[in-house]
Amino acid sequence: MTDALIPLIESMAVLGLTWGPVLVIFFMAVESSFIPFPSEVVMIPAGFMAARGEFFPGTSPWGALVVAIICGTLGSILGAYINYWLAVKLGRPFLYRWGRYFFVPPDKLTRAEDIFRQYGDVATFVCRLIPVIRQFISIPAGLARMDFGRFTFFTTAGAGIWVIILSVLGFWFGSNTKTMSYADLVHQGKFFLHDNVAWIILGAVALAALYWKVQQMVLKSGKTPN
Questions:
Q1: Rounded distance, CA 217 to CA 167, Å?
Q2: What CA–CA distance (Å, rounded) separates 150 from 120?
Q3: How many folded domains does the chain comprise?
Q4: What are the tens digits of pLDDT across the range 10-33?
Q5: What whole-number distance in Å separates Cα of residue 171 and Cα of residue 141?
Q6: Which domain holds residue 155?
Q7: Average pLDDT, stretch 195-209?
Q8: From the CB of residue 142, how many other CB atoms can be counted at a distance below 10 Å?
Q9: Total Cβ atoms within 10 A of residue 217
Q10: pLDDT at site 74
Q11: How many CB atoms lie within 10 A of CB 56?
């Protein structure tokens, strides 16, 4: 799919001079919903363009990078909201029967539900950094009627980290080369992510464990002796 999207990204790069933030929000919302769409082909080029002054012109490269990260995170949240509320409104029977026709096959939905049941709310955070499953983890959260505030918090944290990684990677490429094509950019970015995805996931697990530890300490400190 990535190769097929390269011409689209190249054409969108021209529009990015004017509509960059809007395009990032739109495509990241699509990526974060049930429609399969790789985030690498959105955020890596956005960071690349920011470094070259082609994303949100009129600001510094670092300022444009911040805008790209904010827009990418916002789009991810919007897409996750779509999945969450579709799950709430449609329910489990509908999704298992008809979801395959809307890019939600039963096997992936079952896997996402198993992960959510096993790890709870924190799975919404960690799974935002895991390829394939990150688009689906919002659905079991909706089916379980996860508290919407907590859902927003964990989704924003996980999606924000992922967007930062992709955007900074693209920014680094853009700061160190002026001749790289968008095809080479996306492919090199994918190779980097493939080689380092284990470290990214371990980092997310460590953050989740730290959050759980702090939460337990807070709960214990709030208890009053009998």
A1: 34
A2: 11
A3: 1
A4: 666 666 667 788 889 999 998 888
A5: 33
A6: 2-222
A7: 65
A8: 24
A9: 10
A10: 96
A11: 24
